Amino acid sequence: xIFCIYLFSNGIxxxxxxxxxxxxxxxxxxxxxxGLRGLRNVENIQYLSxxxxxxxxxxxxxxLVYQNLITNWMDQIVKENPDVVTKVDYGKTxxxxxxxxxxxxxxxxxxxxxxxxxxxxAREWIAPAFCQYxxxxxxxxxxxxxxxxxxxxxxxxxxxxxxxxxxxxxSWTDNSTRLWRKNRTPGPEGCECLGTDLNRNxxxxxxxxxxxxxxxxxxxxxxxxxxxxEAQAVTNFVGKRxxxxxxxxxxxxxxxxxxxxxxxxxxxxxxxxxLMEVGLAAAEAIKKVHGKQYTVGTSPDVLxxxxxxxxxxxxxxxxxxxxxFELRDDGTYGFKLPEDQIQPACEEAYSGALHIITHVHDKxxxxxxxxxxxxxxxxxxxxxAVFVTSTVIV
Length: 394
Ligand SMILES: [Zn+2]
What we know:
- 39% of the residues lie in helices and 15% in strands.
- The chain is α/β, with parallel strands linked by helices.
- It has two domains: 1-70, no CATH class; 81-385, Zn peptidases (Aminopeptidase, 3-Layer(aba) Sandwich).
- The longest helix is centred in the C-terminal third of the chain and has 24 residues, at 342-365.
- It starts with a strand and ends in a 9-residue tail after the last helix.
- 47% of the residues are buried.
- Residues 121, 124, 252, 394 line the site of zinc ion (ZN).
């Protein structure tokens, strides 16, 4: 087994046994292997991580998982789509790893853009898988679909598959770290716990609600606003392009929610009605795919109040459309979403994201043809009725 080698379709080879604790037998019996990459890759590795027994190689294996799952995948996407996609390094993590995004750029003079980040919370493994699925879909669709072709000409897409790289890698170490949420910076003096909740660290009502200044807490917001290098990277990159970015999507799990600004109960987005309307229509689009119900609303209304989120910060920067996606599930499996749900979870969320992006695009680039605002109020009441109380921090 030690000599079991898997050759990626792009020619990158590595010892399978050194990648976490993959079983060579499982690799050999997987008939789809020659094309294995992206989502399939995620499926297989996530699956194996919960079914295989740990071997002594796992201490370095978690780093290799990231390298093979994310870094090599990004390089491969760029290699396969050289005219469309570039990789942009835009920050460093606390442990000095590079934070990268994929940018799609297809001509067009009026530069507008869509932002998507995944994996700001380490344990939410379905999120990076979704970013990979999203990129794959964009690149497959635009060649044949005139609408996608048009949208990709008018707008650049910035997609960060894993923002919290240190935390994500740490969550792959073993079962005891699987549910790690924060990044990996040391706490303040006198505190032995590590990590800041990056989604409480942004400059948006920082440190006010939905946080704990106990540095061992999972919702510790950091020493100060934007104290964390990962939050700084997004703040710098997006902040410089706030006029250009029309839509900010940040992907989490779990709970099946579409959250709009703001997390603070006393702050209301000036376009809250439109955000609700678009969110509800996106939830309808999601439901059409596999019947899953997504609830739409502000964090305090449908989940819990919070502060310092990247979504709220983006809206405060003037980016009109800002949404948090909480992907599957409803709490049955929580962060450990079973393998057979990865693909459907991505398919439905893609449909929701596509609805939002299409709305954003058409509003900017196509003359208005009227709205369906009247439906929103009714749907809102319906959605509120399915509100499920949550004690889990997502
Ligand atoms: Zn989260």
